[in-house]
Amino acid sequence: MAENIDQIDFTWKGKDKSGKVIKGEIQAINETIARAELRRQGTRIIGIKKKPKPLFSKAKSSISAKDIAVFSRQLATMLESGIPLVQSFDIIGKGNENPAMAELLFGIKTDIEEGDTLAQALRKRPIYFDELYCNLVEAGEHAGILESLLDKIATYKEKVETIKSKIKKALTYPIAVIVVAFIVTAIMLIFVVPVFKDLFDSFGADLPSFTLWVMGISDWMVAYWYYLVGFVVALVYTFMYFKKRSHAFNYFLDRTLLKLPIIGMLLHKSAIARFARTLATMSAAGVPLVDALESVAGATGNIVYYNAVMQMRESVTTGESLQNAMTQTHLFPHMVIQMLAIGEESGSIDKMLNKVADFYEEEVDNLVDNLSSLMEPFIMVILGILVGGLIVAMYLPIFKLGAAIG
User: Fold this and answer.
1) CA distance 130 to 126
2) What's residue 369's pLDDT?
């Protein structure tokens, strides 16, 4: 998936189909792909180069997906109220508390004032506005229903971000607790256990095997803790490196996560909800199915589903029905396929897919609400083994000495 591969920012200058000189920025894996994407958009390239990274600049993360969702809702409201497009950007930009977002909006406003359509201005900023977003805006401009489609985009963005935030919230708590437990255990092994060891050595008594084993781990940690830190840093770096650059690694990782008992079910339902919501939004905008599926594939957030949707796209291109194409992937539940088939027959795919999205978004909500309670026993077991085990190991000799004295 595109978001799992390291992207490079390029600045470019070219001419559009009418011969007008235009310039902008594009994000791609390399220059060849950047040039191909610009040609596909109808741009004749005059020059293209990597965008230099300034020493002091705002991070890309300073503009979040939530900021884009809020902007979409604000712009839709402004246009529905009859406020002109340029003036809407001026109002939203001046009222935005995020300096990076305000700068982005004023840049788009300038491009529109120079003659670009909204879709053209957004396409110059692929870091923040993906192909799906730009396609929907372009469809709205061509059909004269931009405010209506911006409202759909805002609703879509809000629902997708809600699902993402709920999944992150559900997974962050147990991971954070387990990480803290390991850190506390390491601190106890390095600083606390050696104190007990010196105390027990002064008694000269025989120690239980479990206590000796823990002390052996403590001795190793005290002597070679930097090896452990180096290993953890190297492991994290290697994971991030392959996650950004390796398609095969990302496929293996996503496929493994989908097979996990509880988390896998959550990710399955989330991917189906995002698939249905995205395809419904693009179908309602009148985007052709083959074009829509390419954007939908990237919106699923999972490389296994991405490959499946792209496989569906190939099948649809050859004339096969979407229902049959979905069936062949063996990923989508029977209910989803049947709802889509009814939508195809009745000509209301977007309505049926919205119902599917509503259903699975509610399922995700329920799973997330229950996940914390389901994870609590697992977390308690981890804490009991790590922290409780150390306490037992240190107090066993004390009990043994007390019994001997008594």
Assistant:
1) 5
2) 76
**pLDDT, position 4:** 38
Other CB atoms within 10 Å distance of the CB of residue 295: 21
Residue in this structure with the two tokens 């879509």, named with its chain if needed: 156
For residue 71 the two structure tokens come to 């902007």
The count of residues in the chain is 406
Residue 338 has phi, psi (to 5 degrees) of: -70, -40
Task: Output the CA torsion sign for 283, 284, 288, 294.
Answer: negative
- What is residue 324's three-state secondary structure? helix
Read off the pLDDT band of 400 (50, 70, 90): low
- Alpha carbon separation from 111 to 72, 88, 108, 116, 123 (Å, rounded): 18, 14, 5, 6, 11
* One-character DSSP codes across 54-123: -SS---GGGS-HHHHHHHHHHHHHHHHTT--HHHHHHHHHHH-S-HHHHHHHHHHHHHHHTT--HHHHHH
Angle, helix 65-80 to helix 146-187, in steps of 10 degrees: 160
- Helix (H) or strand (E) holding 10, with range, is strand 8-15
pLDDT, one tens digit per residue, over 105-152 is 999 999 999 888 998 999 888 888 887 788 888 888 887 888 888 888
Amino acid at 2: A
pLDDT in tens, 226-257: 888 899 899 999 998 888 888 888 889 989 98
Task: Quote the CA–CA distance of 206 and 404 in Å, as a whole number.
Answer: 12
Tokens of 317: 């291109």
Give CA–CA dist 194/218, Å, rounded.
7
Do 141 and 119 contact (CB within 8 A), yes or no? yes
166, 364 contact by CB (below 8 A): yes
Dig out the tokens for 35 from the structure. 């040039």
